[in-house]
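Lay summary

Proteins are chains of building blocks that fold into shapes. Our project writes down both the chain and a compact code for its shape. Here are two examples, one after the other.
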Amino acid sequence: MKFKKMMMISLAVLLLVSGCARQETKPETGKENVSVIQGGKGEYSILTPFKTSPLRQNYGTNFREVDMIEIGRRLQDKSKDHFNPANFNISEGSIINDDHYDQLLRHESKNYPYGLNPVDGTEFVEKGRKIQTPTFVRDVVEVNFHSGNDINKIDGVGIALVMKRVQTEAGTGLPVRLSDETLYEIARTSIGNRLISYLRTIEGMSDVPIYLVLYAQESDTDTLPGKYLPGRVIGEGFFESRGGQFEQTSEKWTLLGTQEASEEYPETSADFSVFKREVVDFMNDESIGVTGKMFVIDKKVQQLDIDLTTGAKTYLEIYGLAQYVSERISAFSDIQAPITVNIKVYQNSRMIVRKEPGNNKPIIITVT
């Protein structure tokens, strides 16, 4: 009986020890399983699992939504000239972390030698108006490019240096708008090269190609929804190792129905006026809002976006309007670019009419 009890105790101890051994044995951790989600023709593919930018919260605080989208869109589109989507995948930026970001957006000082904004007390004059201690750099946005599937191996970097156009006049507190030429010269002669020099000091970045665009905000205070236009790219530079230089670019969004649009694009402006009147007549509703904007590069229209905003309507009314628009959209005969008409009930999109260049039949998309 005593022998049997000892055997049972020994068996219990053996089971306990073997159980602990099993718990302590852990499988060897393998590499992260990365896959590629293919982009469309001429577009970048992304790596998954998707990793968000460590600076995402900062961007959400600093930008109007219209600028956040436009900065990313233009940086990605313009990067294609240097990082071909057929050869590179894209991911959110990871080189500039919170510490780098804080250093760069500061005013230059003993504690912040790489601060991109001028030292306290600097006086800048624009057309006779004095600006005390200006803040020229509003933000820095980054994306990364990879020639393979290793997200940790960065083969190229795209940076948008976001310039603050609206400054404050010393003494009066009145706004001062800096021209594209002024902002470009500030970036070209000083800030842009200092940013590149700082990035080269980061481990692993000494020889990585860097594409830098200079983006000028139209405003950083308009936060309400409406007809506000985004900013635009005013310059660019491509830097391999320590070589590279800036070039000025010409692009902008133009609001149709303005004097500027009428003077620079008289035919399109006239077509838009006719289109607007016809839509109002068709709906028999003077309260329908019709706004249009064009994106232009080197004075050539790249896209035309029109918003039709109305109050409560039946489905058939919206459907009929979309059908009518799909017929009348051909009135913009001088534009060889995508045309998109967004039909909205209050602020919600309900139907979208889109016409591609070379295709006479627009498509209608219902948004539910």
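And here is the second example, written the same way.
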Amino acid sequence: MRKGARVWIIALGVIGVLFGCGQQGTDGAIRIGVAGPFTGNAAAFGEMIKKGAELKRDTINAAGGIGGRPIELVFGDDVGDPKEASTVATKFATDRSIVAVVGHFNSSCSLAGKPIYKREGVVELSPGSTNVNVCVGSEWTFRNVYRDDFQGQFLARYVKQKLNLKRVAVFYDNDDYGIGLKNAFLEEAQKQGLEIVTAAAYTRETVDFKPELSSIKALNPDALFVSGLYNEAALITLQARQQGLTMQLLGADGVFSPGYVQVAGKAAEGTLITTPFLFDAGGQDARDVLKKFKEKHKEDPDCWAALTYDAVGILADAIAKVGPDRKAIRDHLASMTSPDKAYPGITGKTYFDANGDCVKPAYVSLIKDGRFTSAPVQMLE
């Protein structure tokens, strides 16, 4: 064999290692799973996740894809339910043509899928799961959103230091997300000297909160913090205002959804909500994405669309650098340990600690005229 021919064969072999390890999708596409609540009570989150993922896919493919191969997204509907999440995770993880997964959104769903992704050796990158335990115990699980302990503590400090309020009622969803966030808030509230007049639980899919709100009204708090998702938070907000409760309403990122305003209507006005990202605070890249999103969907994207946009980008960037190999992708994400090794997305620089958690700031959004706007007072940490 001629030396030149041998060199070409070796070169082609290297390319094969980088871009031929996984099975191919349609037209040789690189397949990435996207898991989220695309139907069910949390479908408003899923809608934004889907739109954010598709916009990033389209942007990458329009620029030539990865090594000339397009990205193909495979969507898996977990309905926001841990049992369904296990089913979706099993489907994705055992399909060797899927090289990585964006998801899940709900913390309970990410926790349910975690052992499956770990067993099969595929990255799970969540743009929305904030429970402190999501990344614990698996080197295959990452997230590009902050943790609830940070978010809960941040909100307690904001209430005390920026709003100068003293007495707070807490109404929390009795699930992984609601409990974890509530615990973090209560711990920091004690340090800040806030008086917690009550910390009451509710169950997902409850629709009548009037008895609990009557009890809260009698305690006359300065603020009501709803630690849960937008569905119940909207009903709580609406029923609270109907009963004449005038205290400051507070929510966390689970309330940051167009669905909250759609259900609560004018009652949502003035609600303050913590969020991992605000387009108002983003740079030119974020403004460009905002424009493209609005042109395509005739609505504003939320923080979950932005974080999912970046999650797809993080995986695509990893694949471009190390190829569509599951372990190589994991190893690359694990090597992103400092700002100089971070992925520069529209939500800021993303890099990970040893657990797969990321360091991101929190913002506060104010609902004004039916829109999520940047609150006049921020507390960036």
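What can we say about the second shape? Confidence is low (pLDDT under 50) at residues 1-23.
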